[in-house]
């Protein structure tokens, strides 16, 4: 959830997300790919980004 929040909070920027998490950019990519797999969503689409952003806000 922390990785997803960082990714969405930085407008989908891999580099900014990785910096925020103090992780390598490939680690951020891997984690977001896992979110895609686990949720059945595609974070490359704006609609799915909005849905997951709202879900995080509600959490």
From TrEMBL:
Sections of the chain in a coiled coil: none
Gene3D superfamilies, sorted: PucR C-terminal helix-turn-helix domain
InterPro entries cross-referenced by the UniProt entry: CdaR-like_regulators, PucR_C-HTH_dom, PucR_C-HTH_sf
Residue ranges occupied by any PucR C-terminal helix-turn-helix domain in the UniProt entry: 1-58
UniProt name for this protein: PucR C-terminal helix-turn-helix domain-containing protein
Organism: Streptosporangium carneum
């Amino acid at each position: 959830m922390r990785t997803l929040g960082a990714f969405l909070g930085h407008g989908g920027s891999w580099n900014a997300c990785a910096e925020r998490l103090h992780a390598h950019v490939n680690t951020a990519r891997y984690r977001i790919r896992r979110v895609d797999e686990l949720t059945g969503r595609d974070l490359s689409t704006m609609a799915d980004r909005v849905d997951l952003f709202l879900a995080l806000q509600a959490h």
